[in-house]
Amino acid sequence: MPSDPTILAFDTSAAHCAAALLRGREIVASRAEAMSRGQAERLVPLLEDVLAQADCVWADLDAIGVGIGPGNFTGIRISVSAARGLSLGLGVPAVGVSGFDALTELINADQLPCIPAPRDQVYVQVPGFDPRLMQRVEAESLGPLFSCTDPEKQARAIARLTAERWHDVSASPAPLYVRPADAAPSRDVPPVLLDE
Length: 196
Hints:
196 residues; alpha/beta; Nucleotidyltransferase, domain 5; 5-stranded mixed β-sheet; 4-stranded mixed β-sheet; 5 helices
């Protein structure tokens, strides 16, 4: 295994499409675009742009890093599916990195990583406990909060963490969902099917 791996990391867990390319210990290219929709169509072209920016091709990659959430359900599924597909197609490992782990790379020791959620709520993971969804006011009572407003920085953190973990990965990345989906199955009674 190379000592200076080339790692492509990306994240679509919120209203953005972000990617970073790490070569050895240096981020050589990164990019982020704000978008509330369209990540599925934009992700691969954005990844190709980042690769081209660093004069790199898909075959140069040693591992894939992906943000697994929590966050937007559809966005998380888009990036995790893309990471699994690229991993399989390129024959390289894919590493899932939670938003909390990525934020921990960016904060001061006294801050608590939090990820914005709808309806003035945040996802929070207190050290030693499972992630939770709570009202922002309740979370603020736990201590100073930190959330990243720059998805490009988050993609860079995912790339760095992937560099530390890719040798030991044994499972495909999976979404980190903290709350149930907003959509629910229909409550309508299905029609009765009649045999002829």
